[in-house]
Amino acid sequence: MPHAAQHFDITQWADYSRQLVSPEQRQQMASHLQDGCSRCQKVAQLFEKFTAVCARESAYQLPPAVERQAKALAAIVMTPRRSALERLWASLVYDSVNDPQPVGVRGAHQINRHVLFHAGDYSVDLRFEHEKGSASMVLVGQIANQKSPEETMSNLPVILFSGKRELSRSISNSFGEFQMEYVPHSDLRLLVPIESTGQELEVLLGKAPEA
Question: I want to staple 94 with a disulfide (CB 3.0 to 4.6 A). Which of 13, 15, 86, 116 is the partner?
Answer without folding.
Answer: 116
